[in-house]
Amino acid sequence: GLQVRIQYYPRPSGGMNSKIAAAVLETCVALANRKPGDPGGIAAASTTVQVQRPAETSPPPDGGFVARIFPGLAIFGLLAISQAMAALLVRDRFRAVRWRLLAAPVPGWSVACGSLMYLTVGLTALLVLIYIAGVALFHLELRNLPTLLALGIGFTLCLAALQLLIGFWARSERGAQAISAGCVMLLALFGGAFVPVADYPGPWRILALGLPTGAAQMGMGLVLAGPSGVWPGLQILTLWIWALVLSAAAVAIYRRPLVKS
Questions:
Q1: Per-chain mean pLDDT for the chain
Q2: Threshold 0.85, pTM exceeds
Q3: For residues 72 and 217, is the Cβ–Cβ distance under 8 A?
């Protein structure tokens, strides 16, 4: 016979109106599906009425919201902590620590690489502590640890090279803090530290994905809160391009002779 399908969409609030409508539809189905001759029914042998309700979406797993915003919080924490590194580098320069390092019988590039390694290891250790705190306090699920490690090391290497450049060009500790604060503010504002990059409008999203902070936030968000099996290859490539370019610039500038202030 003729089949009629009624698609019923309840109100999201699940109020009284949707419940009454559901009861009315179910009563109509019960009456229309009765066979001829049934007591108290109506003859509708040639018509079959079905009510099909869409399956309710399951709520997100525990920690889904935290997994979505946690990368931005971690990135902002590293940005805030890294501000002090440029001032420390300027202080070492005034105290002739770098003069003694460059006077040692080692190549200049090794001194620069050692400074980069020192800053990168320190920031990476802080990032690991931040994620441990996320697991302990917010029950964050760390998925795909090698990918998270590649994103984290790439981002911390970017920050280390940036602070090394700022520490070289700044004339004083206050100057280093001011320049570092400006860079941190711009990277945090346009790089998804406060709002996930996926929620940015189209042109701003393209800009954010081209920055190291935006690439790190998007990549970590895909790993922690995205579908399983997603590999943020483009974000890893963007991060490591920034890391290598900034590191090369820092090593090249760091080897230049110093002029005492």
A1: 76
A2: no
A3: yes
Distance linking the first and last C-alpha atoms of the chain: 95
Mean pLDDT of the 185-193 span: 88
| Pairing outcome for strands 2-7 and 47-52 | parallel
The two structure tokens encoding residue 241: 């391009």
Q: Is 21 exposed, middle or buried (0-12, 13-18, 19+ CB in 10 A)?
A: middle
